[in-house]
Write a structure and sequence with these properties.
Blueprint lengths: L2 H12 L3 H14 L5 H7 L5 H14 L4 H7 L5 H14 L5 H10 L3 H12 L8 H21 L3 H17 L5 H17 L3 H16 L16 H22 L5 H13 L1
């Protein structure tokens, strides 16, 4: 263990109060040491919100390299650690977190997790997605965000859904007017039906920004060097499995249509 890291770990181990532990984790996060990632992830499971917030901030600063370890937290039975890991994934925006955020935004039991996931779906690192996958990924994000913004029972989550929709609309592929028009039309409908004044105000703000700013041209895909072809295949398969389950539930559509589209895109790329 590097000496610089050991000093921070020792401070965490010596902490004798909740505030001291939170401060020690904050110092570790501020150090920006990649070797600190496992220890920051461990801090997500502490029964200390201050330490967890500091750990999330530190993990977000470290970025993509922390994603595999964060995803591992999702398989554990510690819900507290899982919830904080989802918050970190939402802020990082790595493509490997897409399926997690889709599920968390629409179905997590925690209001704060749903809110973070909704914001995260609007701010994915879209430039990292291969061209043949981008349209499908953004379509899934749009579907989830519309569900959140229109149907979540908590106004703060619907608010986050509107924020996500705005971000997604601004990030839509250049020339993809269909998706943006759908977002704008849904926002107009929501403005008439939304009961919360705060959410209505945020809808109005989103409408103004979408009208004022053109769609951002999508940069040429710059796939992360940390993602292999196997990683992308796993993401695609998980997305397909999600759609298969959804359509089996509602008994509509042919899930293989998306599968064929994905396969065609993969062969062309």
């Amino acid at each position: 263990m590097p000496q610089a890291l050991s000093q921070f770990i020792s401070a965490i181990e010596r902490a004798d109060s909740a505030s001291a532990l939170s401060d020690a984790v904050q110092d570790l996060a501020d150090a920006g040491l990649f070797e600190a990632a496992p220890h920051l992830i461990e801090a997500l499971s502490y029964n200390n919100p201050g330490a967890a917030v500091a750990a999330v901030d530190g993990l977000v600063k470290l970025g993509e390299p922390t994603v595999p370890a964060l995803l591992e937290q999702l398989d554990l039975h510690n819900y507290t650690a899982r919830a904080w890991a989802i918050r970190a994934l939402a802020s990082i925006g790595d493509p490997r977190g897409l399926l997690t955020l889709l599920g968390a935004a629409t179905a997590d039991i925690s209001m704060s997790v749903r809110r973070a996931a909704a914001r995260g779906l609007g701010n994915m690192q879209w430039h990292q997605f291969p061209h043949h996958f981008l349209a499908i990924a953004q379509s899934e994000a749009l579907e989830a965000l519309l569900f959140v913004a229109q149907q979540d029972e908590e106004w703060v989550v619907r608010y986050a859904g509107v924020v996500g929709l705005e971000s997604l609309g601004l990030a839509s592929r250049s020339g993809d007017r269909a998706s943006r028009s759908q977002i704008e039309s849904q926002l107009a409908l929501m403005a008439e039906q939304e009961a919360s004044p705060a959410v209505r105000a945020r809808i109005w703000q989103a409408q103004q920004r979408l009208q004022a700013e053109p769609s951002q041209p999508t940069a040429s895909p710059v796939e992360s060097p940390l993602l292999s072809s196997t990683d992308w295949e796993q993401i695609l398969n998980r997305l397909y499995d999600r759609k298969l389950k959804e359509r089996a539930t509602v008994g509509a559509g042919d899930p293989f249509s998306d599968r064929n589209l994905l396969s065609t895109g993969s062969q062309q790329s």
